[in-house]
């Protein structure tokens, strides 16, 4: 057993040892219930410190791959079934027939550009001459590079922002690796990191994004391999970073040369804030993902990922063994929408409409004593006295919103719900009345005067 484990280790760091044991477990060479050699035995055989092996064992324990049974030793853990429910599946509110579903996080269909003329201009769609054509239409790549917030070494197009995040995670994150994210964060990202066995560490935010001082402390405590950020229209809070905050974060990360920055610019052209990226300061280790779903249409299923060739190259190459490329027909549609004056004007109209909707509902809520943020994008992050009571109260009024808990890496000081304010085009005062009655337990008409007990994560 000792020879099997040490023979599989190529990288003698704690991360490398944990990854090697993980591969053996996945391959079935270390089966559930197998007793592992002692830390000292493994350390002696590999010629490393017992502390290094202990750290590897701790990573594997946190990920649920192994378990310690006191003096009996350490064993390969049995699979835990059923697996934990994905956070993403918890986002939908109690939407029923006839209810107003503000839990979706999708754009208003009426504010999307019309694809009819773009599809006509594409013609017969003969945009692919070979399975080995470049994955991005040359004209689209040229335009994307002009729009990119820093000069990317390599750029490709994939099937949406989540597809990009999934593929980048598959390339750079291994079992037991520490990964830093914002707290709160987008639940599907947390699901993707959970799926590969990463150890996720959340860094609190303020009104300008992830806090640099707290990021510095986390990186001092954990050997992170990547930091994931939403630079604009953060989901769920709506926060957009300024260039000064990007510079401050880049300064902190400058002292950690092995940490990759992955940016999810999911709101794209409907974001009110100007594009910003840590790639302007750290281009050699920043992957920027630009999505066109919320601005040009979710069913286009297109996002671009650009950054260092050592990351983007393998991502593009691996796709050759699966989908190969994102539909060049849809790429042609996107290229047309990005250059057609009518479509560009429609996106500007949508951006202005979303800004007005955010500002209007925020003003109404604040007039009723409700705390909320919605600086950018299509979502509103509302503080509530009790998440469960708020959800039930809103459901009784025929309104569905997303619970806040799935967004939280660690519990926040207060409960929240996320409201897709981008779908609200009228009736702001009436909606604010209902939201306030759900948010504040001592609001007249809320049906209760009971304050909630102290609570942790719901």
UniProtKB/TrEMBL annotation:
> InterPro entries of this UniProt entry?
Aminotransferase_I/II_large, HTH_trans_reg/aminotransferase, PyrdxlP-dep_Trfase, PyrdxlP-dep_Trfase_major, Tscrpt_reg_HTH_GntR, WH-like_DNA-bd_sf, WH_DNA-bd_sf
Which SUPFAM superfamilies does the UniProt entry name for this protein? PLP-dependent transferases, Winged helix' DNA-binding domain
Top-rank taxon of the source lineage equals Bacteria
Q: Which keywords label this protein?
A: DNA-binding, Pyridoxal phosphate, Transcription, Transcription regulation
Task: Kindly indicate whether the keyword Transcription regulation belongs to this entry.
Answer: yes
Q: Which residue intervals define the domain HTH gntR-type in the entry? A: 11-79
Q: Which Gene3D superfamilies match?
A: Type I PLP-dependent aspartate aminotransferase-like (Major domain) (3.40.640.10), Winged helix-like DNA-binding domain superfamily/Winged helix DNA-binding domain (1.10.10.10)
Which GO-annotated molecular functions does the record name?
A: DNA binding; DNA-binding transcription factor activity; pyridoxal phosphate binding
Q: Which PANTHER family match?
A: HTH-TYPE TRANSCRIPTIONAL REGULATORY PROTEIN GABR (PTHR46577), TRANSCRIPTIONAL REGULATORY PROTEIN (PTHR46577:SF2)
Q: Provide the family line.
A: In the C-terminal section; belongs to the class-I pyridoxal-phosphate-dependent aminotransferase family.
Protein name (Swiss-Prot/TrEMBL): DNA-binding transcriptional MocR family regulator
């Amino acid at each position: 057993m000792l020879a099997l484990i040490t023979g599989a280790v190529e990288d003698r760091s704690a991360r490398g040892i944990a990854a090697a044991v993980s591969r053996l477990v996945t391959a079935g060479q270390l089966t559930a219930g197998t007793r592992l050699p002692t830390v000292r035995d493994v350390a002696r055989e590999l010629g490393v410190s017992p502390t290094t092996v202990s750290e590897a064992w701790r990573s594997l324990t946190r990920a649920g791959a192994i378990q310690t049974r006191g003096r009996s030793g350490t064993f390969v853990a049995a699979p835990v079934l059923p697996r934990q429910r994905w956070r993403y599946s918890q986002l939908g509110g109690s939407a029923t027939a006839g209810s107003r579903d503000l839990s979706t996080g999708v754009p208003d269909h009426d504010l999307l550009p019309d694809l009819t003329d773009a599809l006509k201009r594409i013609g017969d769609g003969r945009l692919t001459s070979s399975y080995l054509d470049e994955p991005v239409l040359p004209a689209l790549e040229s335009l994307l590079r002009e729009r990119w917030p820093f000069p990317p070494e390599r750029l490709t197009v994939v099937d949406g922002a989540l597809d990009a995040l999934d593929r980048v995670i598959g390339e750079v994150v291994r079992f037991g690796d520490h990964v830093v994210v914002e707290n709160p964060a987008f639940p599907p990202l947390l699901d993707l990191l959970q799926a590969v066995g990463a150890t996720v560490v959340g860094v609190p935010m303020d009104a300008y994004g992830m806090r640099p001082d707290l990021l510095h402390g986390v990186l001092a405590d954990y050997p992170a391999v990547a930091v994931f950020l939403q630079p604009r229209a953060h989901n769920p809070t709506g926060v957009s970073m300024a260039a000064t905050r990007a510079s401050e974060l880049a300064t902190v990360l400058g002292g950690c040369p092995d940490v990759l920055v992955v940016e999810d610019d999911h709101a794209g052209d409907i974001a009110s804030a100007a594009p910003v990226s840590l790639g302007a300061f750290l281009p050699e280790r920043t992957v920027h993902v630009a999505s066109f779903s919320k601005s040009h249409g979710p069913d286009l299923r297109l996002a671009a990922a650009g950054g260092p060739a050592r990351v983007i190259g393998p991502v593009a190459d691996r796709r050759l063994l699966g989908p190969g490329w994102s539909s060049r027909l849809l790429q042609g549609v996107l290229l047309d929408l990005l250059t057609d004056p009518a479509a560009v004007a429609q996106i500007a109209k949508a951006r202005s409409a979303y800004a007005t909707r955010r500002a209007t509902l925020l003003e109404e809520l604040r007039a009723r004593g409700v705390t909320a943020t919605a600086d950018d994008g299509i979502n509103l992050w509302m503080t509530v006295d009790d998440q469960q009571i708020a959800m039930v109260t809103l459901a009784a009024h025929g309104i569905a919103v997303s619970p806040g808990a799935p967004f939280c890496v660690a519990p926040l000081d207060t409960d929240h719900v996320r409201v897709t304010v981008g779908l609200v085009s009228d009736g702001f005062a009436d909606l604010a009345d209902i939201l306030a009655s759900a948010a504040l337990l001592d609001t007249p008409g809320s049906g209760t005067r009971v304050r909630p007990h102290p609570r942790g994560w719901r």
